[in-house]
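Let us begin with a simple case.
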Amino acid sequence: LGRRHVVITCVTRDDLPDGGANHFVRCIEAVREMTDATVEVLPSDFGGNGEAVDHVVDARPEVYNHNTETVPRLYLQVRRSGRYKWAMEVLGRVAERAPEVIRKSGLMVGLGENRDEVAEVLGDLRNAGCQVVTIGQYLQPTAQQIEVARYWSPEEFDDLEKVGRELGLEVFAGPFVRSSYRAEEAFLHVVGQG
């Protein structure tokens, strides 16, 4: 297909003892056997299993993306099975184990957070060793999910980009930005080729 940058992701695999970590490793290896593309992984939080995180990191994807999703105050409401502290620990763990692997995270806004809370999360991400952050507007996928609390304006997304960049982060923010938004461009910019 001529791909230069491949993003590998999946739904949470709670049915597997390792949360699917071994499958991520096998996918990374398969991509490397068939192409020269750089690899970005976006796995689940592996249910807090640090060994699963390490297993994927040891396969040396160029980018390890772990979404934070929201601010601490809303975490239990938005990510019932997740923990904010673990999200930060994952990024720090990747930075410590493989500093050459780019660390990336994503946030959604529109769930009831405010600017100061998002700015605080950006600071926490930077302190955890994160380098790239995507920020997009939350859109309610079905009536069973949390309703949109408000829609952020383009100017507010520009402001969040500025806040993150002042912290030294590469930030992509906008209503339609998602975790893999301009993934190759973000990777190339961080490694100094973009």
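The second case is a distinct protein. As before, the sequence precedes its structure tokens.
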Amino acid sequence: EPLGEEQAILYQQILSEVRKSVMSDVEKQGVSKSQIKILAALTRLRQVACDPRLMKLPDREFDADQSGKLGALREIIEASIEGGHRVLVFSQFVEMLQLIRDVLDEDGVPYEYLDGSTKDRLERVERFNNDESIPVFLISLKAGGTGLNLTGADTVVHFDPWWNPAVEDQATDRAHRIGQTRVVTVYRLIAKGTVEEKILRLSEKKRALVSTVLSTEGSPLKGLTKSDVDSLFSVDEE
């Protein structure tokens, strides 16, 4: 999905800021000692790619229309509902799920919601599975990766790509777990021309690397070379 116009400008600004500081750190002390800095910078870029409001910039006002992905998600949900489908939406950013809730409220779409702080998880899951009038379930990836059996859904949307395919697959499996007779459709929303695309390219090159990147086991970014870091933070000429 292409970024919104102002979103794209902001993305390039943040990219040039973080690129300088990350590359100078890597130059001075190498990749492994710069991991915290690299992860923080990647998170900022991924947040801009999802929705500029996640950046909480005091001097800039953004709204839902400025997130290219949010627009795409609304279209997917609308088309899914028209086609009689029911949708699980996963994001790693709880604040992003809150922003998605706002647009679903605006669009009059009923939904269930679950993040790490949700206490009545099983009741919510049962309500979704048993009540076909609720077409959407919003779930934070960390909270929803395990132990939920979401048999009511046949469509899965990963709003922001998870770099550990095992975790993403585990989340997707929530909808497959059913003796499901319907085919489960999976969408991954990738912001065009951003670090999200680069992560996917890198992950195709280095499957072993990606199983450790940002996963809870093993050291994050293990096996990342200086040239990998350089390409993750490169400024595209497009």
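Strands lie at 87-91, 111-114, 136-140, 155-158, 185-188. The radius of gyration is 18 Å.
Keep these points in mind for the review questions at the end of the chapter.
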